Amino acid sequence: MIQKGMVIDMREQIKKKFKKRRYAVLLSLMAGVLLFLLRGQFSHAADQIFIKFNEAKLDPAVTYDMTTSTMQLMLGTPEGDHVYDDVRYKVEWTIEDTAARDVIASISPGTSKNIGIVKALSPGDVTVTLTVKDSMDGDAVLGSTTCNIRVVFSIDTSTDDSIYKFVHENDTARSLVMYSNSAPVNLGLNFGSANSSNTQWSSANDEVATVTQRGGLVSPVGAGKTQVIATYTPTGATETYTAYLDVYVIPRVSTTNGANYGTAIDAQLNSGEYLYTDTNFANNLEVIRSKIVWVVKKDDDQGNSKIIADSLGKDSDLISITPTASRSNELRIEGKAGEYDLYFYTYGSYDENVDNGTTAYTPTVVHLTIKSDIQDKTEILSIGDVYRFAESYNMTLEDFNECFSVDIKMAQGAPDYSEYADFDNMKAELTAKNVGNLVATLTVRSGREAYVRRILGLAESETLPAAFTTRIDITDNIQLNRTSMSIVVGQKEQLSVKLNSIYSGSITWESSDPNYVSVDRLTGLIEGKKVTTQDVVITATLDAGNGLYKTATCTVKVEATVSGFTLNPGTDQQMLVGDHLTVVANIKQTVTVAPLRWISSNTSVFTVEQASDGKSAILTAVGGGRATLTVYSTVNNEYKSFEVTVRIPINEISFSAAQMQLELYKSGYNMKDEVKWGPTNATDTALTWASSDTSVVELDKDGYMKFKGAGTALVSVYPTYNPYNVMASCLVTIIGTPDSMTISQMDVTMNVGEAVPLLVDFNPKNTATGITWTPNDDGIVTVTYDEERRIATLTGKAPGTTNINVVTTEGLISNVKVSVKQPSTALNLTPKDVTLKTGDSVNLKATFTPANSTDTIVWKCYDPRVATVDTNGRVTGVKAGSTFVQATAYNGKVAGPTTVIMVTVQDGVKGVSLDSSEKTVRVDSSVTLIPIFNPASAFNKAMTWKASNSNVKIEAVGISNLKVTGVKSGTTMVTGTTTDGGFSVSCLITILPKQKENDTKVTVSPKTKYLAKGKSFYVTATVTGSSNKKVKWTSSKKSVATVTSGGKVKAKKLGTTYIKATAKDGSGAYARCKVRVVRKVKKIKLNRYSGRLLVGSTLKLKATVLPKNATIKSVKWTTNKKSIATVSSTGRVLGTGEGIVKIKASAKDGSGKSATCILHVVEPIEATGITVANSQITVAKGKIAQSGITLNPVNSTTKIKYHSDNPRVATVNKYGKIKTKRAGEATIYGTTSTGLYGYCDVLVVDLNRKAVTLRPYDTEQLHVNEISTGVTWYSRDINIATVSSTGLVTGRKRGITTIYAVVNGVKLGCRVNVTKLK
Predict the structure, then answer these.
(1) Cβ neighbours of residue 811 under 8 Å, at least 6 residues apart?
(2) Are 596 and 634 in contact (CB under 8 A)?
(3) Within 13 Å, how many C-alpha atoms sit on residue 166's CB side?
(4) Contact by Cβ (8 Å): 760, 792
(5) Is the pLDDT at 1261 greater than 80, yes or no?
(6) Which residues, other chains included, contact 667 with Cβ-Cβ below 8 Å and sequence gap of 6+?
(7) pTM of the entire predicted model
C-alpha cells in the first residue's frame, strides 16, 4: 500500500524531471532561434556590405582619386560597422589585378580586420575587393563588394590637419596654411621620395615662401599666396609627374615698420598715420593687393558688425586704407574719429559669404581707434562763413551729436546770440551773421565718457575734461585768397580779395618792397624779383567811402629760381589698376613750394594728386592703357616726362572642365576654347601652355593641342604676364583607337519613316574612332552618327534593300544589310459588300495606301460555314447566310490596317407556290399574287408572268409579285415562272361585275379629336346623295363623352368613345368621329436642341412629355427641309444634304405643345491619314501630356478612337490626353473605322528618390527609372550639394537644394537636405 506522503514525494520528483526536460527543450529552441536570427541578420547585412572612406560610402561604379600616401578603408553595413567583429567571420582585403597589386598600390589590414590600408606606389587604377567569409561554414562567402581607386601623383597633405587645410568649402585638395614666422615645413609625396634627385621642388613666388630644390623644405617669407611645384621622374622612366600645392601665408600687422608684427592688436592712430604688414617685395613681383585682402567692419550701434569697406572695391566715406605704393607694406589710414575693426586675409582665401571670411584660419584683426581733434580752440569767421563742429573735431555728425551737447552764448555771457549767428543743432552748424564774439561750450554727454576718452587717446590715469570751449570771433574784415606764400624769382601768382562785408568800393594793391616782390596796383598780380632775406608784405586796400578803409595782407617769401630738376622715378613705368606710385621732383635749389605743375595726358588711364608743395605727386592707375606724365616749371617752362603703361593682367583663369576625354583619331583640339579668364578688360591676355606628358599631347603657343598617343596628361595654362600667380589645369585623357568594332545589328529590317539605332562597341573598350556610314543605294535609308554616344541612327526613306558600308578612320570595315518596308496606312476592298449564290465565287481586290506599300494581306472569314476566302481574296459561297470577310495588312509580323466587308450567301430556287390556286376580283379592283419560294432565302426570286386573255391587266410588283386588275367579267389563267430553275405556278382568276354603290353618303368633321375633361366641341355632319340631310347623333360611351342632337360633344372622363352620325333617310349610311378624353401635354423636352450631323449618318432624338401622367406620350416628328434631313416617327434623323434644318417634336393631343432641335448637316470629310506629332514622348510620372495623334486633314469628320497597350503605365482619354501612372513604357494608339492608325511610344520616367538627407561629403546614388543613358544632371546650388554626370550626389555644406535630372527635355527633381556634420 502506497502511503499519501510517498505519493506526494513521487509527484514532486515527476514535476522536477518534467521541469528539467522543459528547460532543456526551451534552451534548445532558444539557441536554434538565436542561430537562425543571427544567420538571418548576417545574411541581410552581407548582401549590403560596402566600403567606407572618411565615413562616406564608396560607390563601386565611381573611381576615387587617391592623393595621399595611404588611404584607410573601412567595412560598413546598414546595421553598423561591427557586425563582423566575431572571430568566426573572416574579412579579406585584396587587390585582384596582379599587374596592379604591389605596383600601383598595396593593401594590408589595419588596426582591425574591418580596416584596409591602401598604400600608393605609382600612378594608375586599382580595384580593391572586400570579401566576408564564414569560417564556421567552410569559409562560405557571405558578401563581397569593390571600390575603384586611382592613384594620382600628389604632395601628401594628410600628415597634419593643423597646417594642411581646406581653404574653401568646395576644395577637394588641402593647402598649406602658415605665418611668416612659422617654422619651415618638410613636404612629402604620396609615392616616391621627396628628398631624392628624382624630385625637383620650386616656388612660384619667393616673396611669399621659398622651398629647397631638393628635399621640399618650405620656409615662409611674407604674407601672400604662392604655389609649390613638385616634379618627379622615377628612376629609369621617361614619364614625368607634376603636383601642385597652394601655400597661404597669413598676414600679420604692426604700427611699427619691421617690428612687433601680430595677429591681434589694438591701435590708436591719428588720421593720416600708418599701419604696416609683413608682406615682402624684395623681388618686386606682386603688388600688395595681390598678396593680402583687408576688410573694415564697424558696429552699427545695434550690436551688429557690418562691412563698410574692403580692398576689393568697396569704399566708405568714414575710412580709407591706401598703400603708399603698389609694392609697399605701408598702409595710410585716413578717416573720421571712431572705432573700427580691420580684418586681414591672404589673397585668394577670403570669402564674403562665409562667417569670419574664411574657415581655414583665424584672420588677423586690428582694433583701430582713429583719434579726434578735440581741444579748446579759437576760430575767426567772417560774416556769411559756416562753421561745422563735427568736421572741426574730425567726427561724423552722428558721433558728434551722440557725444556732445553744444551751448552757445555771447563772450560777455549774454545768452541771446541770434543777432550774430544762427545755429542748427541737428547739423551742429553755425552761420555768422554780424560782427561779434561767441563762446561755444561742448559738454560730454552722460554715458559717452569712455568713448570720448578712447577717441582722445587718453590713458586711464588722465582726466577727461568736463567740457571743451570754442571761441568764435566774427569779423567784418576783407580777406585774401592767400595769407602767405613762397615763390621763386620770376614766378607770378594772382592774389584776389574775398568780400564778406556789407562794404564795397575800389581796391588798390601795394608791396612793402617792390624791388623784391612787385604787384600790379589794380589787378593784384605779383611777381618775384629777387631772393628775399625777409618777408615782403602785399597789402590790399578797400576804399569803402566816407573815409573808411578796409585792408588785408599776404606775406610773400621769394626763393631762388628753380633752374633744373629731375624726376624719381624718371623712366617709363608699368602699373596695375589700383596701384599707386609716388613720383618725386629732385630740385637743385632749396625751395619751400616748387613752381611745378603735374599733368596726366589721359586721366582715364591714371590720375595725378599733386602735393601742396609741388615737389611730388601720387599717380593712381584707374584704367588700362598708356598715358604720359608731364611735370613742367611755371617759371621757365622746363619740363620732364615719362610714359606710364597701366596693365590689367589676368587675375583669374580656369578651364570649363577639370577633366576632358578626347579621341586620338581626331588628331588635335583647341584648348583655348575651354579657357575662361578675367577680368574681361584685361590688357595682357597672352597665355603660356604646358603639358605634363608630351608623349600624350603637345601644345603650341596658341593653345592648340596635338595628340601624340593614348594616355593621360595634365595640361596647364597661365598668363604670360602673371603678377597674380594664377594658373589653371585640366587632366586630359586621350582615348586610343580600336583594333576591332562590333555593331549591334548587322541585318536590319525597318519601315519607311522609322528610326533604328545601331550601337557600336570598340575593342579594346577604352578606345574611340571616327566612322563613316555609306549606303550603296541612294534614297532607301539615311544614317546619322552620334560619335559621343556611339549610336548610328538609320532612317527609312523608301522601300528597298541596300547595304551600308561602315569604315573607321583607321580603315576597319564592316557591312550592314538594310531592308526598308513601306507599311500601309489604309486598306480598301472592292466591292464593298458581296451577295452570291451557294457555290459561286467572287474575287476581292485590295488596294493599299500608299500605293507602294510592301505589306502582305492575310484573309479571314468570320464564319467558314457560310463562305470561305483563300489567300488571294477569292470568296466562295458555302451555304445560305451572312458573314464577314476581313483583310488585314501585315508588315512582317506587325498587323496594320484592317478592312471588313459583309458577304451574303443565298441558295438557288428549288420550288415555288401560291397561297391559293384561285382568286376572285371585281372589275376595276385588284388583287396581288405573292409567290412562296422554296427555300425562302433563295438567291434569285425573279419571276415572269403572263395571263391567258385580256380579262385582266397584270403589272409586276418588284421582281417577284404580280398585281392583277379586273377588266371585264369572266375568267383568266395567270401563270408565273421563276427565272432561277424555271419553276411555274398558276392561278385561276374569276372577274365579277363592278358592285353597285349606295347613293347616300355621310361625312363628319373632324374625324378624330383629343379633348380635355370638361371641355366641349361641335361635330358637323354632311349628307350627300339624299334629300333628307338630317342625322342622328349617338355616343358609343356616354360615360366618356356625351353628344347633343345638335352635335355638341362634352368630355366627362378619361377614355375613348366614337360619336356617330346616322342618316335619317333610312339608307343606314353613317360616319364616326373618334373622341379621346385626355390629360394634355404641357411641355416637351428634347435630349438635345442643337447638333452636327453628317450626310448619310443618323442621329437619335428623344422627346419627353410633361407632365409624366399626360395621356398621349407619343409625339409627332417633322422636318422643315426634307432635302437636308428626314426624321422617322421614332425620332431618328437621317442627314440627306448640307444645310441647317429644324426637327420638330409636336404633341399629338391637340395641346399645340412642341420642341425644336436645330441641326447643321455637313458632308463627311474622310480622313486621308493620321498625323503623329511626336513618335516618342517622355513624360514624368503623374504628369499629363497630349498624344499628338490627330487626323489629316484637321477638319476631317472621321472619328478617332484612342487606347493604351499598357494602362498600368499610362492611360488615354477620348480626346487623346495621356495621364501617366507609373514608370515604364506604353504605346498610345489612335485608330479609325476606315483602318487608319497612328501611334506614339510613351516613356514614363521618375527618380528613384524624391528626397534625400545627407551629411557633408556623404553620397547618394540617384537614377532615373526606365532609362540609363541620355540623362543630364545638375544642382540648383553646388555650394550645398553637387551631382556627377552619373547621378552621384555629394553633400557639400549644410542647406537645402534640388538635384535635377533632365531626360529628353523633361526635368525631374530630388530635394536634398544636407545636415550638420556630427
Answers:
(1) none
(2) yes
(3) 7
(4) yes
(5) yes
(6) 706, 707
(7) 0.47
